[in-house]
Design brief:
Blueprint (H helix, E strand, L loop, with lengths): L16 H26 L20 H23 L5
Helix pairs in contact: 1-2
Length: 90
Amino acid sequence: METFTQPKITGYRQLTEAEVALMNEGKALAEQCGAFIAKLRTHSQAGSNAVLGSPSKEPPLDQRWISIGATDLQRGFMAVIRGIAQPTSF
């Protein structure tokens, strides 16, 4: 495996291979959550059933809460990634 030395970024340190693997795992989980949020945002839009073209019997999802959940998930993943990276700056 080729060793990569990251250019020095103020406030950050060189990560170990294990830390990079953890960050990549976290980023992959965040992408899965993002895809789920995108699915929720398009679910039963305009009260129609896209497959049959007939009105859906399901009430529309509360997009306000979905947006709040998306923001909280983003904040949570940012906090976890920061916990792995352990920056020394504010």
